[in-house]
Amino acid sequence: MVEFTLPKNSKITEGKTWPHPAKARAEREYRIYRWDPDDGRNPRIDTYHVDTGDCGPMVLDGLNWIKNNVDPTLTYRRSCREGICGSCSMNIDGTNTLACTKAMSEINGAVRVYPLPHMPVVKDLVPDLTNFYAQHASIEPWLHTVSPTPEKEWKQSHEDRQKLDGLYECILCACCSTSCPSYWWNSERYLGPAALLQAQRWIVDSRDEATGERLDNLEDPFRLYRCHTILNCSKACPKHLNPAKVIADLKRTLVERQV
Question: What pTM, to 2 d.p., does this model score?
C-alpha cells in the first residue's frame, strides 16, 4: 500500500479559541483557516464566537464582525456585499460560494471558512488569482472588429443579444474553476470553466468579427479538452450559470466547423 505524507509545513493545526462575546444573546461559532507567510507557522484553524444580534445574517457579516470586534489581523477580500464583484469568494461549509450571499442560517453547526481550494494562498482567506486572471486575459475579452467603426454604435438584434444571457453575468469569482478537479491538476494549461465561459461570451457575440481566431485559440488538447464534464463548476456557480453546458457547446462548435 502506498502512503502519502504531507510536508510538515502544510499540515493544518488547531489554532486559538477566542473568548465568547460579553452579553451576547445568540452566538455562531466560526472556524476559520488562518495562515501568515511571515510568521513561519503552519496553517491553523482559529475558533471565534460571533454575536449574531450585533451583525447581519450573512457569513460575510460575521467575518466583518470578527475583524471589527475581535481580531483585526483576519485577512480576506470584500467589496460590494451584493454578489456582484466576486471579491469575497471562499470555501464555506465545504462549498465554494460568496460570503456576502451565503446566509448563516443555511449552515448547520459551526461556520467553517477556508480559502478557495487548490490555489496558492497569499494570507488567511486570500487566494492568489494571478494565473486565473492571466487566463482570462488570454482569451482577449473585448470586441474584435475589422469593419469601420460606426458613428454611433455597433447595432445588435434582440435575438442576438439574448444569446449572451447566461454568459455576461459571470463575475469572475473563481468559484467554478477552483471546484474543478481538471483545473486543480492542469491549471497551468487548462483554461478552466470561468475563462471558457468568457470565451464563449465573445464567440457568440454577433458584433465580434474574430470568431475563427477565437476558436483557433481554443483548439488545443489542454486549453479546452481537459474538461471531463464533472459538473462541479455548474453546481458551484453562485450566479447559477452553467459553465459545463457552455464548454460542451464550445466543443460542439469546434467539431461542426471541421465537418
Answer: 0.92
